[in-house]
Amino acid sequence: MDSFSKMDHRGNRFKGVTLLELMIVVAIISVLLSLGFISLKRLKANYDLTEATNKLYSDIEWIRQRSMGSAYPYGISFSNNSYTVFLDINDNRKYEAGTDTHLKTQSLHNITLSGYPNSYTCTRRGTPNQQFTITLKNNGNTKHISVSMFKTRIK
Questions:
Q1: 19 CB-side CA count, 13 A
Q2: Element housing 82 (H / E)
Q3: How many domains does the chain have?
C-alpha cells in the first residue's frame, strides 16, 4: 500500500473520483450541451419561418374568403418584414393609413419578405387582382407562398 492511499476505520480503501476525472466529465457534458444548443437555434429558426409562412398563408386565404360576396374587397399591404390586412372601401387596391379600414398588422420578427406586390386585394368573387410569389427568408431557410387565380400554395 502506498503512502497516499486513504483507509477507513475497517481497513478498506476510499473509493471516489479525482479532480481530473471530474473535470473531464464536466468538459464532456459542456461540449454536448453546446452542440445541442446550436441545433436548437436552427430548429427554432425553422419553426419561426414555418409559423410566419402559415400565418401569412392563412391571412391570404381569409382575405379571399371574406371578399366573396362582401360589399367591399379585402386586401393586404406588404412591407419588408410585416403586413397589414385592410378593408378596401374605396376599391382602389391600396391601404390608407389612418382610416377605419385597418383590420390587423402582423410583424414577422427575423423574417424577411421579398417578391411581394405593394398591395394585394381580391375581387368580390374571391379571385386575386394579380398573381405573385412571396419569398420568406430566415437564417438561410426559405419558403415560398404562390398566389394564383384559383389556388394559394406553400412551396
A1: 0
A2: strand 82-87
A3: 1
- Would you say 147 and 120 are in contact if contact means Cβ atoms under 8 Å apart? yes
Give the separation between CA 91 and CA 70, rounded to whole angstroms: 12
Calpha distance 13→10 (Å, rounded): 9
**Nearest to 41, CA basis, from 142, 155, 138:** 138
Report CA 130 to chain centroid distance, whole Å.
Answer: 26
| Residues 83-126 pLDDT 10s | 999 988 887 877 777 677 788 889 988 898 988 888 888 888 88
The answer as to whether 6 is a domain residue is no
pTM: 0.74
User: Counting beta carbons within 10 angstroms of the beta carbon of residue 73, is it exposed (0 to 12), middle (13 to 18) or buried (19 or more)?
Assistant: buried
State the Cα–Cα distance between residues 155 and 132, nearest whole angstrom.
Answer: 13
Instruction: Report how far apart, in Å, the C-alpha atoms of 109 and of each of 82, 105, 152 are.
Output: 8, 13, 23
Is 22 within a domain?
A: no
Query: pLDDT tens digits, residue range 3-15?
Result: 555 666 677 776 7
- Buried b / exposed e over 4-21, threshold 16 CB at 10 Å, is eeeeeeeeeeeeeeeeee
